[in-house]
Amino acid sequence: MQDNYQRDINYLRVSVTDRCNLRCVYCMPPQGVQTVSHEEILRIEEIETIVRAAALIGVKKIRLTGGEPLLRKGLAQLTQCIANIPGIDDITLTTNGLLLPSCVAALKEAGLNRVNISLDTMRADRYREITRGGDLSGAWKGIQSALDAGLHPVKLNTVIIRDFNDDEAVSMARLTLKRPLHIRFIELMPIGSCNSWAKGRFVPAREVMGQVTARLGQLFPVKTLAGGGPAKYYRFKDAEGTVGFITSMSEHFCNSCNRLRLTAGGGLRPCLYDGREIDLKTPLRKGAGAREITDLIMDAITMKPDRHHMLDGWRDGRRVMSQIGG
Ligand code: SAM
Question: Which residue owns the Cα nearest ligand 1 atom 11?
Fold first, then answer.
């Protein structure tokens, strides 16, 4: 379905849990956040009904995210249910990768097509610091398990943060020379409780691109990479992987935004930045079927704003990224 700005809305990001096994400093406060209770989290069948309803109006692509989606029990079962829904042709996952080795085969078998793994640094001490306690070798095992399982492409999400990891952009980009890894440098967004922290640490993507090309040579634009999305992809001469840049802040791409976000508690959010959500859980639990849910999804699409205004600050005091679904 098209929204009021002639954008084709065909992508639903589903947060399957708001819990996380890491506490990334730009994502969550140290004490964590109030999580939704077990009863309030959408059940597998409820998510399935919502995806079925969304598929009726043209949603084709589903991303499973969180919180940390691999903490959700029954994720392979959910993946399989979604894969069986007519109209859904792409299922992807965003994860920190730590739990991936033990479940990647089952997820692929269930219908998972691709995976994005978050990796902000290649240094163990920094990984521990940015994630507040995470183990870098575990993340690498997750990345290797995705490659071994034949998921393609394996994309790495790297948020570049001033005076934290901006000196690693070159070494991270170098990873793509000899390995089929697709690194995406993401601009830090001033979201949630970390809003004020993020302000002085923002690094524009063009600065990151300047650093990597100065050291590693010219980047050539890449026409297509499965999943497309907001990143602009490039490749070094003869490299196996690619380097992408996501310019959410310096050059927003709202005019091509095709997504909706479903929170773990059943709120349908037309825009990451816009605090408005349509509650799908209450009607579902009162017996609404796919048809009624489709009507509510259409309402959310109609509410979708023309663009975000994150440069003016974060206005949703209720939620941080892990609660919306990153
Ligand atoms: N736990 C999973 C993971 O680590 O990928 C999925 C959820 S996480 C919230 C999804 C993505 O959001 C991660 O790649 C993370 O780096 C990104 N993210 C979180 N807060 C962000 C912010 N303020 N600015 C930019 N990216 C952010």
Answer: 326
Buried b (16+ CB within 10 A) or exposed e, 285-302: eeebebeebbebbbebbe
Nearest partner of 71 among 117, 17, 28, 32, judged by Cα: 17
**Residue of 17, 26, 164 to test ligand 1 pocket, by largest number of atoms within 8 Å of CB:** 26
Q: Parallel, antiparallel, or unpaired for β 11-17 and 61-66?
A: parallel
**For ligand 1, is residue 191 a contact (CB within 6 Å)?**
yes
Distance CA(238)–CA(236), nearest Å, equals: 6
* DSSP strands (E only) in 149-258: 154-160, 181-187, 219-221, 232-236, 242-246
Report the distance separating Cα 241 and Cα 181, nearest Å.
5
| pLDDT digits 0-9 by tens, 90-103 | 999 999 999 999 99
Q: Is the CB of 65 under 6 A from ligand 1?
A: yes
Express each pLDDT in 28-65 by its tens digit.
888 878 888 999 999 999 999 999 999 999 999 999 99
Q: What number does the ligand 1 atom closest to the CA of 20 have?
A: 1
Burial class of residue 70 in the structure, from the number of CB atoms within 10 Å of its CB (0-12 exposed, 13-18 middle, 19+ buried) = buried
CA of 186 to the centre of ligand 1 (A): 9
Cβ atoms 154, 181 nearer than 8 A: yes
Give the pLDDT confidence of 55-76 residue by residue, as tens digits. Answer: 999 999 999 999 999 999 999 9
| 290 and 296 Cβ atoms separated by less than 8 Å | no
